[in-house]
Design goal:
Blueprint lengths: L5 E5 L6 H11 L4 E5 L10 E3 L11 E4 L5 H11 L4 E4 L13 H8 L1 H4 L2 E6 L7 H4 L4 E4 L8 H4 L5 H13 L7 E4 L3
Parallel strand pairs: 1-6, 1-7, 2-4, 2-5, 3-4, 5-6
Antiparallel strand pairs: 7-8
Helix pairs in contact: 2-3
Length: 185
Amino acid sequence: MQEYILILCVGKRNSGKTTMGLKVARSSKKPIVILNEGYHPAYKDWLQITIDDIKNINRDCVISVDEDNINEVCDALMKYQKELFIVFEDCANYIPQAVARGGLKRIVINLRKHGFDLLFMYHTLKQVPPFIANMYNALVLFKTVDTFDSNTLNKYPNSKTIAERGSKINANKNDHYSEMILDNE
């Protein structure tokens, strides 16, 4: 896998996004920072920190975020940290669909400068903001409720490939089946 990558992980609830995402994050050998709104059982034993603790991150941790503080958290990560794998868990809850600005936009644009790998988890392709849909390197696609029509996919540079592979994934009998789609496919 290339260094400093932006990954989208999209699928229904309980499809395996968090399990897959953590496997990818651990393979990076970087400290993992989970940004999450509220409780997630996969992280119940993880160190919970606040924005005030960001400058001292030295191990895997979880930071609680919401729509009001996501830009501030992203700015603090860029100010105090390098070489992290940042997972935006269930990010439709705190990243507005139509807007990418402030610290969130800066962290996506400058991920290489800071040595960050970013993984954004969504339940549908439709939820992914256009700014992020245009910047990804790899999409791990699980079963979704998406219809794979042009209205949903027009923000993706390889919409035809996503439509073909998405239909194949949704037709698979395995509820946890997924495929990786690269941005240049």
